[in-house]
Amino acid sequence: MNEKDLTELAAGAALHALSADDERRYRRALAEHPEWAAQDDIDADTAALLADGVAPVAPPAGIRASLLAQIAQTPQGAASASASEPDGSADESPASGAASPGPARRWTRLAFALAACLALLVGVGIGAVALNDQLNRPASVVALQEIESAGDAQKATVELDDGATATAHWSGSVGKAVLVTDGLPEVADGKTYELWFVRGEDPIAAGVFDVDGGEATALLEGEMQAGDAIAVTVEQEGGSPSGLPTTDPVIVIPTA
Predict the structure, then answer these.
(1) E strands, 40-190, where?
(2) Distance (Å, rounded) from C-alpha 137 to C-alpha 87?
(3) DSSP character at residue 135
(4) pLDDT tens-place string over residues 132-145
(5) What pTM value is reported for the model?
(6) Rounded Cα gap, residues 6 and 143, in angstroms
(7) Residue 170 contacts by C-beta under 8 Å, 6 or more apart in sequence?
(8) Is 8:18 a contact under the CB 8 Å cutoff?
């Protein structure tokens, strides 16, 4: 391990977040090169400073896996570009003659820094719930935000006889539709609500959903087309086995 490799692992070591293998490599390198200990001290002191005086809070379940999944999805175009350059052409510093960290190493260091910052925030209880919610947002909520941010976002609301409301949100450019309900009654055991695009005279199954306290945010499966109406029926659990409605709709929202 060289000094740059150790520097990349220092943040994870300060947070006790390294794998067993990396932890052994890291400690062995420090023992063999005591002159590199300064970076270990800096990261350890930073972690201690941020956590000083704050009672520890247990992080939400699954937060580490969600965080690492987000980091894994981060584009690494800079790293790929670096790999295509001739050896030493991008990293050699004419002034000092020493190699500076290339884009790939800078990205790795940045990923560790991001993990360190977020893990510390969770560890000291700052915004842990909000962070967990952000990383685990349902697809329907994400789609609703996409629609509402689109320039051609549209919505239509109907009120049912019992006072419940249902609002359809859709966008032609996004190609998605989301139904939001308020006050919709629970269905009987073994039953569920099923969504439909009604295209002309043809109902097209678009997924099932349940309500929680009368509320639901449901993403319709499939791509919405101009002029489709959005309907909801009550079907057996799992949806209509025939792919066609078996009951009269309890909600119909025209979109044209």
Answers:
(1) 154-159, 165-171, 176-182
(2) 43
(3) H
(4) 555 567 899 999 99
(5) 0.51
(6) 41
(7) 147, 153, 154, 155, 176, 177, 178, 224, 230, 255
(8) no
